[in-house]
Design goal:
The chain has helices spanning 2-25, 49-77, 86-109, 121-137, 139-145, 148-172, and strands spanning 36-37, 40-41. It has 179 residues and is mainly α. The protein has one domain (2-172). It has a two-stranded antiparallel ribbon. The longest helix is centred in the middle third of the chain and has 29 residues, at 49-77. Bound molecules: cytidine-5'-triphosphate, magnesium ion (MG) and potassium ion. Residues 22-23, 26-27, 44, 46-48, 51-52, 97, 100-101, 104, 107, 114-116 line the site of cytidine-5'-triphosphate (CTP).
Length: 179
C-alpha cells in the first residue's frame, strides 16, 4: 500500500510543482498577447510566458533531483521509487503547464472570467496534460511507471492535494482564489 501510494505521488511530483511555481513567478506578457476569440480572451491574462517557462523549468529541475534521490529515499522507505529520464521530467512538467493552459481555453469558451472556478477541470487538467505529454516524450517509461493502479491513486489523491495547496497559497496571500 505504501509502495503504491508513495510511488504514485513520487512519479507525479514533477507535474505537481509547475503550477505552484507559476503562481509565484507569473506576470508579464500573456501567452495570448491579449487576443480574443469571440467575446472572450483566447486564454486570459493568467497564462503568461514567464509563469509557463519558470513552472516548466522548476518541474524539470525537481525531476533531476528526484532522479538522483530515488535510490536513497526508496531504501529508507523500504520500497522502489521510479527515477526520471530527462524526457520524462520534461513531459510531466511541460504537460502540466499545457493542461492548465488548455483548461483556461475551455474556461474562456464557456464564459468563465479569469480566476473563475471550474470544479473537476481545475483539479485534474494538469494531470491529464502531464500524463499525455509524458506518454508522447517517454512512452516506455510512462507505461511502465504509471500502472493503472497508480493512475487510480493519482486521480483520487490529486484533487485533495490541489485543494490543500491552493488553500494554503490563498491563506498565505500568494494566490487570488483558493482553487
Ligand atoms: N500563471 C502564469 N502562467 C501560467 C499559469 C499561471 O503566469 N501558465 C500565474 C498567473 O499569475 C495566474 C496565477 O499563476 O493568475 C494563478 O494561476 P491560475 O489559477 O491557473 O490562473 P487564473 O488567473 O485563475 O486564470 P484562469 O481562470 O485562466 O485559470
Ligand atoms: Mg485560478
Ligand atoms: K488553473
Amino acid at each position: 500500500m505504501l509502495e503504491l501510494i508513495a510511488g504514485a505521488l513520487w512519479a507525479m511530483l514533477p507535474a505537481y510543482v509547475p503550477n505552484n511555481a507559476a503562481v509565484l513567478a507569473g506576470g508579464g506578457r500573456p501567452i495570448d498577447g491579449g487576443r480574443t476569440l469571440g467575446d472572450a480572451r483566447l486564454l486570459g491574462g493568467g497564462k503568461t510566458w514567464r509563469g509557463t517557462a519558470v513552472g516548466t523549468a522548476v518541474g524539470v529541475a525537481l525531476a533531476l533531483v528526484l532522479d538522483a534521490a530515488a535510490p536513497a529515499v526508496g531504501d529508507a522507505l523500504g520500497i522502489t521509487l521510479p527515477g526520471f529520464p530527462i524526457n520524462a521530467g520534461l513531459g510531466l512538467a511541460l504537460g502540466a503547464m499545457l493542461g492548465d493552459i488548455g483548461a483556461s481555453f475551455v474556461k474562456r469558451r464557456s464564459g468563465r472570467e479569469r480566476g473563475a472556478a471550474f470544479p473537476g477541470l481545475d483539479q485534474l487538467d494538469f494531470v491529464v496534460g502531464a500524463l499525455l505529454l509524458a506518454l508522447l516524450f517517454a512512452p516506455d517509461w510512462t507505461l511502465q511507471v504509471f500502472t493503472p493502479a497508480r493512475i487510480a491513486v493519482v486521480v483520487v489523491v490529486t484533487p485533495l492535494l490541489h485543494l490543500a495547496t491552493n488553500g494554503i497559497a490563498y491563506w498565505l496571500g500568494v494566490k487570488d482564489e483558493p482553487w
